[in-house]
Amino acid sequence: MNILALDLGSTTGIASGLISESRPSIVLARLWAAPKELRDMRKNRMDRRGDIRVTRFFSWLTTTHQTSKFDLVVFEDVQFSSSTAQTQLWASFRSCVWIAFPKSVVEAVPVGTLKKFSAGFGSADKAQMGAALKRCHLDAHALCADDNAVDACWLWYWAKHNLLRTPL
Question: How many domains does the chain have?
Answer without folding.
Answer: 1
